[in-house]
Amino acid sequence: MTWIGPSNSPRVTVPDIVGLLLPHARTVASNAGLALATGDPDGPPVGALTWPGVWVVTAQHPAAGARMRRWGSLVIEFKELPGTAEDREPRRPPP
User: Kind and range of the H or E element at 23?
Assistant: First the structure.
């Protein structure tokens, strides 16, 4: 389910953010007048699910080119790029 924004908001065109790293996708969406969201409206926000690490957008709904109300929620799916999570363990062997 996608929240399409306040009923009195003007319509904006959805950009294509699939394949973008999450910080860039967030900037592109915001510049278009949209907010990123997960498919679960009761779940944690995107930022809480994607920290730490480097994440890429793998799908979006609605698709690029669709029209929706300004500041509506652009629902995304994302995955972490391998080997990018913050490693909290020391890399050197113990003494």
Answer: helix 22-32
